[in-house]
UniProtKB/TrEMBL annotation:
<dbReference type="GO" id="GO:0003723">
    <property type="term" value="F:RNA binding"/>
</dbReference>
<dbReference type="Pfam" id="PF14432">
    <property type="entry name" value="DYW_deaminase"/>
</dbReference>
<feature type="repeat" description="PPR">
    <location>
        <begin position="178"/>
        <end position="212"/>
    </location>
</feature>
<feature type="domain" description="DYW">
    <location>
        <begin position="591"/>
        <end position="683"/>
    </location>
</feature>
<dbReference type="Pfam" id="PF20431">
    <property type="entry name" value="E_motif"/>
</dbReference>
<dbReference type="InterPro" id="IPR002885">
    <property type="entry name" value="PPR_rpt"/>
</dbReference>
<comment type="similarity">
    <text>Belongs to the PPR family. PCMP-H subfamily.</text>
</comment>
<dbReference type="Pfam" id="PF01535">
    <property type="entry name" value="PPR"/>
</dbReference>
<dbReference type="GO" id="GO:0008270">
    <property type="term" value="F:zinc ion binding"/>
</dbReference>
<protein>
    <recommendedName>
        <fullName>DYW domain-containing protein</fullName>
    </recommendedName>
</protein>
<dbReference type="InterPro" id="IPR046848">
    <property type="entry name" value="E_motif"/>
</dbReference>
<dbReference type="InterPro" id="IPR011990">
    <property type="entry name" value="TPR-like_helical_dom_sf"/>
</dbReference>
<dbReference type="InterPro" id="IPR046960">
    <property type="entry name" value="PPR_At4g14850-like_plant"/>
</dbReference>
<keyword id="KW-0677">Repeat</keyword>
<feature type="repeat" description="PPR">
    <location>
        <begin position="276"/>
        <end position="310"/>
    </location>
</feature>
<feature type="repeat" description="PPR">
    <location>
        <begin position="377"/>
        <end position="411"/>
    </location>
</feature>
<dbReference type="InterPro" id="IPR032867">
    <property type="entry name" value="DYW_dom"/>
</dbReference>
Amino acid sequence: MQFKKKTPSKVEDTCISLIKKCNTLKSLKTLHASILRTVVHLDLHRFTNIISHYASLGSISYAYTLFSHRDSSFFSDDFLWNIMLRGLVDNTYYHRSLLLYTRMQYLPIAPDNFTFPFLLKACASLRNLNMGSQLHAHAFIYGYSSQVFVANSLISMYAKCGLFYFSKRVFDKMPQRSIVSWSAMIGACSQYGFHDQGLLLFTRMLNEGIKPNRASVLNAAACVWSEEVAPRIHRVVVDNGLHNDHSVRNASMLMFGRCGRIDLARTLFDGFAYKDLVCWASMIDTYARADLSLEALHLFNEMRLQCIFPDSVVILALIQACSILASSHLARALHVVIIRCLPDSRLMLDTAVLDLYMKCGSLAYARKVFGKMKENNIISWSTMISGYGMHGYGGEALCLFDQMKALRKPDQIAFVSILSACSHAGLITEGWECFNSMERDFGVKPKSEHYACMIDLLGRAGQLNQALEFIERMPVKPDAGVWGALLGACRIHSNVELAEVAAGSLLDLDAENPGRYVLLSNIYASFGKRKEAYNIRNLMKSRGVKKIVGQTSIQIKGNIYTFVSGDRSNPETDLIYSELGKLMERIRQEGYVPDLSFALHDVEEETREMMLYAHSEKLAIVFGLIKSGYGSSIRIMKNLRVCGDCHTATKFISKVTGREIVVRGSQRFHHFVNGTCSCGDYW
DNA sequence: CTAGGGTTAG
């Protein structure tokens, strides 16, 4: 590129427009050299432009070198400083930008209203609250803290650093606000889960006559979680002509999906003339979160047919979908895709895969993935710990927890993982030790979930009265999980009085959960209190709560077979039932006694026993025995908690057949080997 | 020269 000599002012203009036209680092360097050859003394304006352009082309170190060797007459120009700060921040050199600001304070140069937004952005990205609030003070002293751009930056800085109420205070005190102030504040509300407040702000904004733009509706849409509100927001979107914007359309789609209107989400999806990757990812994720695994997988196939390659977000959505299906085949297939195609974001994907393997019962693979992970964070540790917990490996979980404690401060969820692992494994002393250390050693306040684990632990030990006392002494309000744990313990230890206490709260707190009614009714039935059992079932019906049909599935050679109680839909039904009959006879000889309290109550005893035999768990196990090679283990999955009678029967089956049987219930895994179960008969 | 802005693991 050649630089032509013209009159000085023209030269300067041309020069700057030439600088701006450079779109590669190489062309900029050539131009820079030729400018230096032609002009002896580079003026401030051109110098700044060159630095700015080096930064925007990514050569921040070059820009910084130029800046450091600048002419002494440019020394205290704030524009130049701002450009340098912007360059650093844009290139994610946040720390460096803050250091430069610190140096600036010792020089005769004052920050202006442009300076603060750059620096606050750096603090926000670094989550450096300390520096952020110092900058707030400086901005105040220099008189810029109410300036719209500065205040907007403060809002998002505080929001990112975890101080929602500081954001709110800045917002409330602003003498005037721009659309950006509103959308930043609404965004903060959605980030902190204050959805109603966010929607309220959005409405207020509209009432003040401010025309919504892209960002504001995106943030408002993220606050929508109810079917009634979603169409209203969508109308605002359409009325303001924002419905053709890609990101807005994707956000609307997700909004409908979140509110349970998968149909409307799909309609929007189908309406996209051009579907980008985010669009596919969002729809697949919508299906996965709605437990529509097969739809998610189907859509993924369609995506592949259009030659669109998945990214980590798509894979995460698929992992979610597979965890419902619990297919270890699919898990491995996905894992292969990750290893081959997605070397980035490995921590997140590996953690998700780890969790998936655990949920599919592939403990060995999970362990392998964890062992090979290059880095670990609190999430991956917790995942592995709760995975061990689900399988009843309390010792391994504790060992891992100890290792983790040396490296990271456990958070609330980490404690849920370890406490539930202790309760699943019956490690009572260890559980108490963990619980006591929470607040004492780590400053983590126990929440309801942690108490629920402890109730489970006490219940397992049969200390039901202590469990109740513990609940009464809880500093937080016991939730459904806590009472549910007590009710479960009452079922195991046959305590109808306490069951009634627990149910008293539970049937209000968790009124729409059918499992609670069924459990209580079973407890009554096991005490022969037919009338009470019947009443509970009636209460459930009158409240319009539908019982979830129990079903068990088993995978044979990549195909998934599902059974419900008394199922006769399998083509090999006759064989299954005749084998089932033989097997039941065999385990009876071994000492199995059917527990009729798990059958329906209003039929004859003989029929009840037949119905018990035909429970979905038993059908799936028998099918597995028929279809799999001798000696191989059998894996089945149930959508609900495993039935007590099936649990007993499975123990006997594992003994008489010599097979390992792995059952995934809704709460945990049961490994049956030679007549015993890993749960220690507390499920 | 400045702020907000679609999907992401326990």
